[in-house]
Amino acid sequence: MGSTPQHPFFLTVIESLRAYNKNWHLPYITVMYSTGPLFLSVIWKEYMSSGHNIGDGAGGGRVRILMMDEYNRFPWSFFSHHKGSSWHGKDARFIFWM
Predict the structure, then answer these.
(1) Which of helix, strand or coil describes residue 83?
(2) Mean pLDDT of the chain
(3) What is the dihedral of CA 19, 22, 28, 31, to 10 degrees?
């Protein structure tokens, strides 16, 4: 993830952390929905529907998403992707099994 300083989307993400800080009794779901990718997707969807996804530059709120092919396969790419999932445990295997 990357952004300009004080980007409205990431300010919204930070401001939403406390409201989404819940224990869902399964570590996988708790992480996914309180700080993980599902949390970011929910906040992004709310942000997009709020009409703030407009304007570029210092005061703009537009969010752009790089597709996986654009991360590091071109001379102009400057991102890298590292596999994580350190919080995946037995509960994650159970959820994926379902």
Answers:
(1) coil
(2) 82
(3) 40
